[in-house]
Amino acid sequence: MLSAYPACFLKEENGYSVVFPDLNFLSTCGDTLDESLAMAVDCLAGYLFEAEKSEETIPAPSARSSISLSDLAHELNILECDESFVNIVTVDVAEYAKLHFTKAVKKTLTIPQWLNTAAVKAGLNFSHVLQEALLQKLGKKSQKHTDKHRF
């Protein structure tokens, strides 16, 4: 199902900031307009995906015409908003999640025979152990079913 929310694209010196007023001023940015649009889709998909998983109430989108760029720019201390605009950002959260958040990737690795034998004897799940080790190396909190979580 397609989700659509208005986003404010605020032109700044180093690109664009993107703010979703309906979603607690959820924001992202990009160096170019194209990058900002892609980041907006990713940001919206991630927010909606996590909110749905957490069973949070997701606010309804406002009408694009009800968004005031000048009020938002004033609130964010942005002096000029001549090149800024409001655009509707759309995403099919379920499809986006399949491609970016939950898709498992197969990896081939090589370990010493003695280590393989010991791990099999101990009944270890190789995928789980590798995910836990990668999370630890990346400084991420260990999570159950890590392939279903976005980092």
Brief write-up:
This protein is α+β, with helices and mostly antiparallel strands and 151 residues long. It has helices at residues 33-53, 69-75, 93-100, 113-121, 126-138; strands at residues 2-12, 15-20, 26-30, 85-92. Strands 3-2-1-4 form a 4-stranded antiparallel beta sheet, with helices on both faces.
Tally the beta strands.
4
Please give the largest β-sheet. Answer: 4 strands, antiparallel
User: What fraction, in percent, of the residue positions are helical?
Assistant: 25-40%
Count of individual domains: 2
What do you see in this structure?
The chain has 151 residues and is an alpha+beta fold. It folds into two domains: 99 residues, Double Stranded RNA Binding Domain (2-Layer Sandwich); 36 residues, no CATH class. Helix content is 38%, strand content 20%. It has five helices and four strands. A four-stranded antiparallel beta sheet has the order 3-2-1-4, sandwiched between helices. The longest helix has 21 residues.
Properties at a glance:
151 residues; alpha+beta; single chain; Double Stranded RNA Binding Domain; 4-stranded antiparallel β-sheet
Write the layout of secondary structure elements.
Layout: E1 2-12, E2 15-20, E3 26-30, H1 33-53, H2 69-75, E4 85-92, H3 93-100, H4 113-121, H5 126-138
Antiparallel strand pairs: 1-2, 1-4, 2-3
Helix pairs in contact: 1-3
